[in-house]
Amino acid sequence: MNIKSYDIVVIGAGVSGCAIARELSRYEYGRGIAVLERASDICEGTSKANSGIVHAGHDAEPGTLKAKLNVQGSKLMKQLAKDLDFPYKQNGSLVLCFDEKDRNKLEELYQKGKKNSVEELRIIEKEEIHRLEPNISEDVVAALYSPMGGIVCPFGLNIALAENACENGVEFYLNTEVKDIIKQEQGYLIQTNQGDFESKIVVNAAGVYADVLHNMVSEKKFNIIPRKGEYCLFDKEVGTYVTHTIFQLPTKYGKGVLVTPTVHGNLLMGPTAEDIEDKEGVDTTGQGLSDVLKRGALSVGQIPGGKIITSFAGLRAHLDRNDGDFLIEEAEDANGFIDIVGIESPGLTCAPAIGVMAAKLVQELLPAKEKEDFKATRQGIPEMASASEDERRELIQKNPAFANVICRCELVTEGEIMDAIHRPLGATTVDGVKRRTRAGMGRCQSGFCLPKVVEILARELNKDIGAITKAGGESYVVEGEQR
Amino acid sequence: MNQQVDIAIIGGGPAGLAAAVAAHSAGIDNLIIIERDEELGGILNQCIHNGFGLHTFKEELTGPEYAARYVEQIETLQIPYLLRTIAVDISVHGDRKAVMVMNKEKGLFTIEAKAVILAMGCRERSRGALNIPGYRPAGVYSAGTAQRYVNMEGRMPGREVVILGSGDIGLIMARRMTLEGANVKMVAELLPYSGGLKRNIVQCLEDYNIPLKLNHTVIDIDGKERVKGVTVAKVDENRKPISGSEEYVSCDTLLLSCGLIPENELSVGLGVKLNPITAGPIVDESLTTNVEGVFACGNVLHVHDLVDYVSKEAESAGTHAAAYIKGEKKAEDKTIEIAYTGGIRYTVPSAIHIENMEQNQVIRFRVDNIYRDVELTVRIGDTTFIKQKKKIMAPSEMEQVIIKKAKLLEIPNPEQIIITISKEGI
Predict the structure, then answer these.
(1) Comparing C-alpha atoms, which of A37, A334, A358, A340 is closest to residue A211?
(2) Out of B106, B129, B225, closest to residue A473 by CB
(3) How many CB pairs under 8 A join A and B?
(4) Which residue of chain A comes nearest to B218, CA vs CA?
(5) What is the mean pLDDT, run by run of 10 residues, along chain B of 426 residues?
(6) Any bridge partners for residue B101, and if so which?
(7) E-assigned strands of B308-414?
(8) What are the backbone dihedrals phi and psi of residue A349, each rounded to the nearest 5 degrees, phi first?
């Protein structure tokens, strides 16, 4: 079996892995860079199931890597969103305090924020809170206001980083699961279910599985605890119930949940935090969902249950060790093996900064010249839903498929879906189309558009509709043969 | 110059078709039907079982046959229609309504209409809206999506099936999947009674030995890539799962038939006020919404069980829209509110104007529970219009009463029409 050789192999095509691959693709690596991903698409793990928050940085412990990368990442995000064309909004955030006795906790957060160099933080009182957010509970006493907080589309960010990395020469191998990594004289042999790879440098960005990979090459074992977070997503009808991201100080129910608008106009509530064993345990639970609603109601009162359109769960990769910080470093006893581990909150915010930091680490081990022809920008899929009348006409003029509405709820057209399928690292599954175009994310939750999306995928990929899956593997939508 | 029509009908399903034919019969031929799917007929096209048209045609037709009866008339009367065309937005422009539409042939363009008839139908309640916990595998479908796959695309969504919700679509699909060789293990229903027509329970479940589990619901979905099984539990009188009653049922498909929701996105954009109970527009006797010249009929107004009633209602909307165009609508006079008590969930219309009401004004309504041996009364002030003994009334069977205009005119200063259900003698 022939072995594929690279200078760098990144394992994991989540937001961290793709941010790193993108940064590394600025440099001339003769034998190239590869990203290995076990799932059928990029952004299939933690990166697709989180709060989508760009934290201002007042929550992270000063002096930690989390704090440093949070502030850096937050600063980089705005420009990155423009360069790589993904949705981002600086909507500001509030941390609510419901009890005068807890006011000192707000003060502590404020001080933390100041130490972390977060700009424009201030504590505001009830009256100002209600001027900013009329729908917040009457029980609120004070809040920490951070205008620097933002929201982002987590899949938009992840996919944009991946596409840009791909355009700059990074090769992506999907459906490729690492079975073993063997230290060699120079570099590593990576055995996967799709053949072997060989690489000087390995970047371990495997999320909840990063411990499994690390422990293949290192004697200093560590353990990652999957920490489940459940969310409820509400109809766009209540999408402006609040305009800022609303956090809570720990309440009588424990660690607070957030209530936030999403960049696409929905309202998101969550997450819970439950340590589990199963690294694939992304099922929601009755208890978890009711917890989300109960805790969220403390901030904004009861939002009618009929406005929920879906719920989901994601797993944070919590590194089981004392300091609770990220671990981003070359493994002590494995040269050239770079761990990107324990990337829980504020991981999404930190992604751009993690990319820069990891690329620097790699450069120290394996220097390379900066490319002159690095493509720093990327054009996303045009969105008919948010386009002006003129923009819509222009798109239709270029391709009439942009006038063929497939997803009625989110106004997604055939033109957009075809773009999603045919661009680099294009969609091959129903969920892949969904994350790139929003088809199926509306209030009917693909009730109307599913057969049409499947039909387009089958047509464009030259497959039978029975071969189209929801998210790879065995997740076939319908049976194989025509009756 | 935008296309100018008298009436734009949004939706070419049974409601839109009947409204178009009626408007044409009343003398309006400058109208257009806007349909998003490949052909006219709406949801009827995938309802290949029969039972349609018992009232309208005195025949038992299949869905496509019923639709064909109206499509034939559309073609004969040469009523214009657009297919594969979606209405993106409707707004008021002076004395007209601007309907912004989009299709592959003509791109983005606007149709200006003097009147609009909303006939967009409804959508199914999704797994997400039901907040059913568990994984999110392939194999969870609304019954309607499964029906489309089986009846129109010729594909089976799966073989080992559990159905949640005993609404008509769920019952029909229980039989349909069985006929195609699937093993339908059960139909679970949250409420203590079924949401479907009695005849469907007999013909779809009892005839096929498919168990109907009332007071049951699905509390978990298992399977990471494709459905592997579901957990079904009994519920108490508060519809909360009873601990200890959980049963794991292995299956590869979960079909959901848990309610239909009128599709009023376009209506809301137009400023149409909705009734929170029906999720459809509030209308008067002419099926006009609060926006002048905008009418509603069919499932977008309130979800029906019989297409025959849809056709009747749509006929009325078409006729009234035509009257509006021709300026035959009399100046608005006294409004009589329709009030209800004792177990009625809603009425359509919500109010009537005496001058403009029909000679025989139909008021349609649903009850909120199963009632046996009750008395249905309609009165205005001290005058009793209708007093009927009813052996049984159920939420799943839409009811109607007819108010005679002549009789109403006899009453001095009528304030309210009150519809009540009560136990006999009370």
Answers:
(1) A340
(2) B225
(3) 134
(4) A286
(5) 94 98 97 96 96 94 98 98 96 95 95 98 94 96 96 95 96 97 98 90 96 98 98 97 97 96 95 97 97 97 96 98 92 86 94 90 95 94 90 93 92 90 71
(6) B87, B109
(7) 335-341, 344-348, 351-353, 360-367, 371-380, 383-393, 399-404
(8) -60, -40
Q: With the CA atoms of B173, B176, B182 and B183 taken in that order, what torsion angle do they form, in degrees rounded to the nearest 10?
A: 60
Evaluated on CA atoms B138, B139, B145, B149, the torsion sign reads positive
Model pTM above 0.90: yes
Residue A62, SS3 per DSSP: coil
Q: Which helix (H) or strand (E) holds B184?
A: strand B183-189
Cβ–Cβ under 8 Å, residues A376 and A25 = no
Nearest CA among A353, A352, A362, A366 for reference residue A329: A362
Residues of B in contact with A231 (CB under 8 A): none
Contact of A297 with A270, CB cutoff 8 Å: no
What is the rounded CA–CA span in Å between residue B284 and residue B302? Answer: 14
Say how many residues make up chain A.
483
Q: Do B138 and A471 touch (CB under 8 A)?
A: yes
CA–CA separation, A464 and A456 (whole Å):
11
Residue A423, min C-alpha distance to chain B (Å): 22
Write the ipTM: 0.95
CA A349/CA A51 separation, integer angstroms: 11
Asked if the Cβ–Cβ distance from B102 to A396 is below 8 Å, we say yes
Establish if B77 touches chain A: CB-CB under 8 angstroms. Answer: no
Respond yes or no: is residue A55 known to be catalytic. Answer: yes
The string of DSSP letters for B63-109 reads HHHHHHHHHHHHHHTT--EESS-EEEEEEEETTEEEEEEEETTTEEE
Sheet with B140-142, strands from edge to edge, namely B140-142, B253-256, B160-164, B183-189, B212-214
Q: Do A311 and B131 touch (CB under 8 A)?
A: yes
Alpha carbon distance, N-terminus to C-terminus of chain A: 40
Closest CA to B141 of A281, A440, A436: A440
